[in-house]
Amino acid sequence: MAEFLQKMLATTREDLEARKRRRPLEEIREAAGNLPMVDRSLISAISKPGMSLIAEIKRASPSKGDIRPGLDVAAIAAAYERAGAAAVSVLTEERHFKGSLDDLRAARRACDLPILRKDFIIDAYQVWEAAGAGADAVLLIVAALSVAELGYLLGEAGQAGVEILVEVHNLEELQIAVSALGDGLAAAIGINNRDLKTFEVDLETSLNLIKSVPEGIPVVSESGITTSNDVARLARTGVDAVLVGETLMRSQDPGSKLRQLLSF
């Protein structure tokens, strides 16, 4: 496992244990179960004809530091919806990305789009947290989980009523993801173009791996998408959606930049 991911998981476990002591899983489950059922499907949103864009809300990153100081989550989420985003991704990791579940709740209140919780999810507690905060989908990173853990969390997501974006970086991880996705699971494959060891980004990762994704599973390309030419290139190979964060967050007008990316 890459050193970066090891570090992220170590601090995730520390913070998770602290939250569990403050509020037990049973209470989190009950709170999520009491929410009204709302039909907002990330999978349906990105499976429509044409290229879709999942627009991310991201305050900072470990390698780049602050990305958008003074971020108004609600205003950005609403701008994304007006500009034609298919869904909103909210980065909720606190220590290194400066996100929070409060950011997710703010985005949920500000728009009617499906909301993806993007974090280092390793425990059922986080899945139910996401559901209780209003997320419609969660990210599961194959590189961060054993095969058994991935299967267990897929099951928990199904019980919690949230969909899944399963993230892979290479063919081995893709094969694990495809094997884990049983019939009836509302899930998509996310191909991350960033190498977790070198941090280099290469769109060829998506262009190559999509050839091995079975028909019928939506594919999202993540990382390194900065221009409409990038989006067009991915669309030609059958990618259903792109997930874009930093490019939008660094723009003075994220909504305008979103429309530009989809103008190919």
Helical region count? 12
Mean pLDDT: 94
Number of domains: 1
> Any idea of the CATH class?
Alpha Beta
As a percent range, the share of helical residues equals 40-55%
Biggest β-sheet: strands ordered side by side in the sheet: 1-4-5-6-7-8-9-10
Number of strands: 10
Q: How would you characterize the overall build of this protein?
A:
With 264 residues, the protein is an alpha/beta fold. It has one domain: Aldolase class I (TIM Barrel), CATH 3.20.20. The protein contains twelve helices and ten strands. It has helices at 3-22, 25-33, 42-46, 73-83, 101-110, 124-133, 147-160, 171-180, 204-209, 228-236, 246-249, 254-261, and strands at 52-57, 60-61, 65-66, 87-91, 115-118, 137-141, 163-168, 187-192, 219-222, 241-244. The strands form two sheets. It has an eight-stranded parallel beta barrel, surrounded by six helices. Helix 2 packs parallel to helix 6 (124-133) and helix 6 runs parallel beside helix 7 (147-160). It is globular. The N and C termini lie far apart (37 Å).
